[in-house]
Design a protein that fits this description.
This protein has 6 helices and no strands. By secondary structure, the chain is an all-alpha fold. The protein has one domain. Helix 3 runs antiparallel to helix 4. It is elongated and about 60 Å long.
Length: about 150
């Protein structure tokens, strides 16, 4: 592997970086698929009720304990891998990058929804969250196709 000494040194760990990147992606996507489902069920509870408060705890723990840390690891390792391998120059990787930005934007939207629920100010229906629940799945399909098939390979 040609490049600066840091790239050469870190290049020896690409397989490890990739393994931890995949594990973080699995954790992040699990949470991205589960949180809107929790929101859908949460909409059916009365504010201040025991079940409403339980949903608040579950949502907070999922977001702060799994979803946020996993997204940070995904981004750190993903950018590192793109840099080490030079994949950032490939069209498929640039498209993947845009899709991961979309996933991150959705993550941010979920944070806003969580804050609304935490303050008993949700304005969306269960149907909204059930439909929104499909967006991460569609993005996952597109991202996996890009990674495994690598269309538009330069």
């Amino acid at each position: 592997m040609a490049g600066n000494p840091l790239q050469v040194c870190l290049g020896n760990y690409i397989t490890w970086f990739l393994a931890f990147h995949i594990m973080a992606v699995i954790a992040w996507m699990s949470a991205m698929l589960y949180l809107p489902r929790l929101f859908a069920y949460h909409t059916e509870t009365a504010p201040g009720s025991e079940s409403c408060e339980r949903f608040k705890v579950m949502e907070r723990r999922l977001l702060k304990g799994i979803m946020n840390p996993a997204m940070i690891v995904v981004w750190c390792l993903g950018l590192t891998l793109a840099w080490l391998t030079g994949a950032y120059e490939d069209t498929w990787m640039q498209i993947k990058f845009v899709l991961v930005l979309c996933m991150s934007g959705l993550h941010g939207h979920f944070v806003g929804c969580w804050r609304a629920f935490a303050n008993d100010r949700n304005t969306h229906s269960a149907r909204y969250y059930k439909i929104l629940n499909e967006v991460p799945a569609v993005l996952i399909v597109l991202i996996v196709i890009l990674v495994k098939i690598q269309p538009f390979a330069d």
